[in-house]
Amino acid sequence: QVQLVESGGGLVQPGGSLRRSCAASGFTFSRLAMRWYRQAPGKERELVAVISRTGANTNYADSMKGRFTISRDNPNHKAHLQMNSLKPEDTAVYYCNAVGFGGTDYWGQGTQVTVSS
Asked: Is the dihedral of CA 79, 23, 44, 40 positive or negative?
């Protein structure tokens, strides 16, 4: 059974940090690229960051560059999103996503991140 189990969400003050994690099981983790998305209330889901299968390549949405870092731990089947200098506008439900060839597309359950004083 394919699963992406997320952890590390919650409430943080502006300027603070959170580390999101995504634990994968039921598929060959190293064969899929990993992405993080987020969806704020009343807005469309947006891509936050992408990391290649090996971790050699990463890409970020412009508003996250320099603040967020995506990483992966292939031996332990985990992906991470380190979020620093958080702003109220970063408040959203964050999702991890695994994608591969042939239409492979798996999603985590989503976890709320709230940035508020």
From this structure: negative
Q: What is the DSSP string of 3-65?
A: EEEEE--EEE-TT--EEEEEEEESS-GGGSEEEEEEE-TTS--EEEEEE-SSSS-EEE-GGGT
State pLDDT tens for residues 94-108: 999 999 888 889 999
User: Any long-range contacts for 22-25 (C-beta under 8 Å, 24+ apart)?
Assistant: 22/78, 22/79, 22/80, 22/81, 22/96, 22/108, 23/77, 23/78, 24/77, 24/78, 24/79, 24/98, 24/106, 25/1, 25/77
Q: Across the chain, which distance is largest between two alpha carbons, in Å?
A: 44
pLDDT tens digits, 54-98: 999 999 999 999 999 999 999 999 999 999 999 999 999 999 999
Q: Alpha-carbon distance 98 to 79, whole Å?
A: 10
Q: Which amino acid is at 18?
A: L
